């Protein structure tokens, strides 16, 4: 039997358990290591030289794309992520497969089947694709969110507004709030600027859900959302919104 050495990089404990169990259970894979962040993944992959790497994209310290860019050799890659906007990028990078979390055992087995058939790709080809992917993020159409133990897709058009700190973003949609582990700047870069406007360092609004805008005593706009929420726009955003008015 053709057995391949495997490594995985994943920062979420539950997802690590799922991947670890899946790799151990597959007769064609031999797990040689794992990592919970990008920096550790880079060091261990270069030291262990696995044939196959299951790579999360959003991780602390370094993204999966950054890890691949810095490797001095190219293993076969299967991306594992909760964000389906990276699917096109994954296949542009010649990834063998792309597992959208949460995935089934059957879906994992199908990915391993492709690993056993697929060749190792050229380093130069990957480098060019990585550069293109880093400089030109794909337009986001939906995002997977968690709610009471469920994970489901949320269309970008349903998002009313977002508030964020440096690491987490609260998305308001469908009359609920969903916490996602991705910064608002990264989300903004993949959204339609004609629809989503940054009104404050930590706030992004979907104009489709704005009821009205009214100036306060400092001539800065107060954004009245359809759900009754009032959000303050800073000076630059207020000017931008005024300029957008016909």
UniProtKB/TrEMBL annotation:
Residues 143-246 form the HTH LytTR-type domain. Pfam families: LytTR, Response_reg. Keywords: Phosphoprotein. The modification 4-aspartylphosphate is found at residue 56. Residues 5-116 form the Response regulatory domain. This is Two component transcriptional regulator, LytTR family. InterPro entries: CheY-like_superfamily (IPR011006), LytR-like (IPR046947), LytTR_DNA-bd_dom (IPR007492), Sig_transdc_resp-reg_receiver (IPR001789). GO terms for molecular function: DNA binding; phosphorelay response regulator activity. It comes from the Bacteria. The keyword Protein transport does not apply. Signal peptide: none annotated. SMART domains: LytTR, REC.
